[in-house]
Specification:
The complex is a heterodimer of chains A (209) and B (392).
Chain A (H helix, E strand, L loop, with lengths): L1 H12 L12 H4 L2 E7 H7 L17 E7 L9 H8 L1 H13 L7 E7 L3 H17 L3 E2 L8 H7 L4 H14 L7 E7 L9 E6 L2 E4 L2
Parallel strand pairs in A: 3-4, 3-5
Antiparallel strand pairs in A: 1-2, 5-6, 6-7
Helix pairs in contact in A: 5-6
Chain B lengths: L1 H11 L2 H43 L7 E9 L6 H17 L5 E3 L3 H4 L1 E6 L2 E6 L4 H6 L8 E10 L2 E10 L6 E10 L15 H13 L4 E2 L1 E9 L12 E11 L6 E12 L3 E13 L11 E14 L13 H7 L5 E15 L3 E9 L13 E2 L4 E2 L1 E9 L1
Parallel strand pairs in B: 1-2, 1-5
Antiparallel strand pairs in B: 3-4, 5-6, 6-7, 8-10, 9-10, 9-18, 10-11, 11-12, 12-13, 13-14, 14-15, 15-18, 16-17
Helix pairs in contact in B: 2-3
The chains are: A alpha/beta (209), B alpha+beta (392).
Chain lengths: 209, 392
């Protein structure tokens, strides 16, 4: 009897159990990001939800499973966009770290991104600009532009050659000068969800990732 | 789950239903988006509050500077409605916090598309992206800086990236910050005109959570009603009680409480009495008291009740006889007995509560005057009590 009551109590207490089961599907369960914390840390972060550790301790180790619901469920946005945006901060942070190591101090950075969706491309470029400033770099909000003839030629080349040629054209047209670097972030293949980056410095193109 | 159910229903429905399906689906998507936007809005406000608070502590410019709010972008998938809410809140924050040393200026030309033809070609761009074009056109907004706010949903976190660009030909970024929160954390909901640091807001939250401290002074007005014995020719009138006591929470979450109170009762020409009551309560509606919803406690307790006067004769195990009543004219009958009770209490924060309980007085199980609400066999529940409590 006591076990039954305990079981019922546990069942009632687990109404927000994030795992898949009777109350939610696997697809719904995937929309939670969960991490396990000690009771003390969980109380520190969520004092209104997790009670404090009793002063005399507990008989067993008690922990808390902290689950955060995603802002947008998987499937609400186009798959490739979601994959990029889901870890935008991490990916761009890594790329800007690599980029700053390739250029001397006091370099002025220009940033642009090349992605099929203009809204997402804008997000990537903004994240990179802000990331570079936060690393103490001089960054311009201006986007270096080439002429229409250059664009028409570059659009017909494979990415491996197009970015290299574009870099040389930036310097030939004096769009970029010495002491200025251009960081480009892009996806190379339309089917991939991994950001790549390259730096154009002194007329030479270098792939970072 | 709902969407899957909807799809099943649609697949089995008549052809006419499939004609209406796209509208219903669009409505469902719109409802979902509105629901998410409503939650997202508070977190976006929180990030803006934090941003402006930081500016009040450490302004981005030494002197008061005019600023154009050039762009507000919201997470991919959201529309201009959320954008407008965010923009309004941000403007309100800057107006109410002059210590940020930023003055928003109106510059419609900065947002408009401008066309500039030169030796290198023709450029079509927004005014803020072509400041030299604005200058040549003689547009003087009075601002030398443009502010860009960008929000993006990254997994469970909402991220704000803010940058201020100097409106010079090279558009140097003079200020940039990233502020992130997770949507799992509750919004701080800081007041716009009295911004606080996150640490101060957390302390306020904890103070609120803990109520007025671990000790409370509850004052209650109670009524005890007694079931009359169907075989008795007298019945006991309800007793009115005024109780004052002290309640201690056994933890800051107030999940367990213990209280002790003293009460008095009086009725003209009938009785006067006192009681001492002790109780232990357990919160049923969670592990900690709620800031927004009433809390429900279950409690058990015991009382010692003493009564004087003719009204006390009803609390004896014999029927008052005329001789008893006659004898009582010269003296003051008195009775003292113990009770046990258990009940439920609904409490709104630590302010006001209503409570109901059922009580047994084992010493009065054989009373010919008192009946039973419930007969448990080993004891009888003779009393129903109701209380209204005010806590101080």
């Amino acid at each position: 009897m006591r076990r039954l009551i305990a079981g019922l109590w546990l069942f009632a207490a687990c109404t927000k159990d994030p795992s898949a089961g009777f109350v939610q599907t696997k697809a719904e369960a995937r929309n939670y990001d969960c991490q396990r914390l000690s009771q003390a840390e969980a109380h520190e972060r969520y004092p209104g939800v997790v009670p404090e550790v009793p002063p005399r301790g507990t008989y067993g180790s008690t922990d808390a499973l902290i689950c955060s619901r995603r802002v947008l469920d998987w499937g609400d946005r186009e798959g490739r966009d979601e994959a990029i945006l889901n870890s935008l901060g991490e990916q761009v942070s890594e790329l800007t770290r690599l980029a700053t190591s390739t250029a001397p101090e006091h370099t002025t950075w220009y940033v642009d991104s090349f992605y099929p969706q203009p809204q997402v491309a804008q997000k990537i470029a903004i994240a990179a600009r802000v990331g570079l400033v936060e690393r103490g770099q001089k960054v311009s909000d201006r986007v270096p532009l080439l002429g229409g003839g250059d664009i028409a030629v570059l659009a017909r080349l494979p990415p491996g050659q197009a970015y290299d040629l574009a870099c040389r054209r930036y310097f030939a047209e004096s769009v970029l000068a010495r002491g200025e670097a251009f960081l480009a972030l892009m996806i190379v293949d339309a089917r991939e969800s991994q950001l790549h980056a390259g730096v154009c410095l002194d007329g030479a193109w270098r792939w970072l990732l | 789950m709902r969407r899957a159910l909807w799809l099943v229903l649609v697949s089995t429905a008549a052809h006419a239903a499939t004609v209406e399906a796209p509208d219903a689906f669009a409505q469902e998507v719109e409802d979902a988006r509105n629901e998410i936007a409503a939650q997202l809005q508070l977190h976006a406000y929180d990030l803006l509050d934090e941003l402006v608070f930081r500016w009040t502590q450490e302004p981005p410019f030494e002197n008061e500077s005019p600023l154009v709010l050039a762009d507000v972008t919201v997470p991919v998938g959201f529309g201009s409605g959320l954008q407008a809410l965010i923009e309004n809140h941000f403007v309100s924050l800057l107006v109410k916090n002059p210590r940020a040393k930023l003055q928003l200026v109106h510059c419609p030309q900065c947002m408009a598309m401008v066309v500039h033809s030169g030796a290198k070609g023709t450029v079509v761009a927004r005014g803020v992206d072509e400041p030299e074009t604005l200058a040549k056109a003689g547009v003087a907004s009075g601002s030398r800086h443009a502010l860009f706010l960008d929000f993006e949903a990254e997994g469970a976190a909402l991220v704000l990236r803010v940058r201020i660009t100097s409106l010079e030909p090279n558009l140097p970024i003079v200020y940039a910050r990233t502020i992130s929160t997770t949507t799992a954390s509750p919004s701080l909901l800081r007041s716009e005109d009295k911004l606080k640091s996150a640490a101060e807001a957390r302390k306020e939250y904890l103070d609120l959570l803990e109520g007025k401290g671990l000790l409370l002074v509850p004052i209650s007005f109670a009524v005890r009603t007694y079931q009359p014995n169907p075989n008795a020719f007298v019945a006991t009138a309800p007793l009115l009680w005024l109780n004052v006591g002290i309640e201690a929470a056994l933890s800051q979450a107030r999940a367990w409480t213990a209280s002790f109170s003293a009460g008095i009762t009086w009725a003209p020409e009938s009785h006067v009495g006192w009681s001492l009551t002790g109780r232990v309560g357990r919160l049923l509606t969670g592990n900690t008291v709620s800031l927004t919803h009433p809390d429900v406690y279950a409690y058990v307790g015991g009382s010692v009740i003493s009564m004087y006067g003719t009204g006390a004769l009803a609390f004896r195990n014999n029927i008052p006889t005329p001789e008893d009543l006659k004898a009582s004219t010269g003296t003051t009958p008195n009775v003292i007995f113990g009770t046990l009770h258990f009940g439920l209490m609904a409490r709104l924060k630590n302010r006001i509560a209503v409570s109901a309980y059922i009580e047994t007085a084992p010493a009065l199980n054989g009373s010919p005057v008192l009946g039973n609400f419930i007969d448990l066999g080993f004891t009888k529940l003779q009393t129903l009590g109701f209380e209204v409590l005010f806590c101080f």
